[in-house]
Amino acid sequence: MSGVDLIFRVAGIGIVVAVLHQVLTRAGREDQAMMTTLAGLVVVLVMVLGEISTLFSTIKTMFNL
Q1: Residue 36 CB coordination number (10 Å)
Q2: Cα–Cα distance list, 64 to 48, 51, 57, 59, 61 (Å)
Q3: CB atoms near residue 56 (< 10 Å)
Q4: What are the domain boundaries of the chain?
Q5: Secondary structure in 3-state letters for 7-58
Q6: How far apart are CA 57 and CA 55, in angstroms?
Q7: Which helix (H) or strand (E) holds 59?
């Protein structure tokens, strides 16, 4: 996955989560809005951790560690 693709995916998830949060908050479901926000955060963190893992593997290979 390229860097620009990752940025667009994270931005897309952020927009969807923000809209869902607003809709659920206006509907009086604050608990579900918070859970939606946390789920979005976890999804983005998993995506970023995968990329960080790839980065460390590349650095390891580059420096023969």
Answers
A1: 20
A2: 24, 20, 10, 8, 5
A3: 11
A4: 3-62
A5: HHHHHHHHHHHHHHHHHHHHCCCHHHHHHHHHHHHHHHHHHHHHHHHHHHHH
A6: 5
A7: helix 30-62
The token pair that represents 47 in the structure block: 């995506």
Given a contact cutoff of 8 angstroms between Cβ atoms, the answer to whether 55 and 14 are in contact is no
Token pair recorded at residue 41? 């955060």
CB 13 within 8 Å of CB 40: yes
pLDDT of the chain, 65 residues: tens digit per residue: 678 999 999 999 999 999 999 999 999 999 999 999 999 999 999 999 989 999 999 999 999 87
Q: How far apart are CA 26 and CA 39, in angstroms?
A: 19
Residue 59 structure tokens: 């650095």
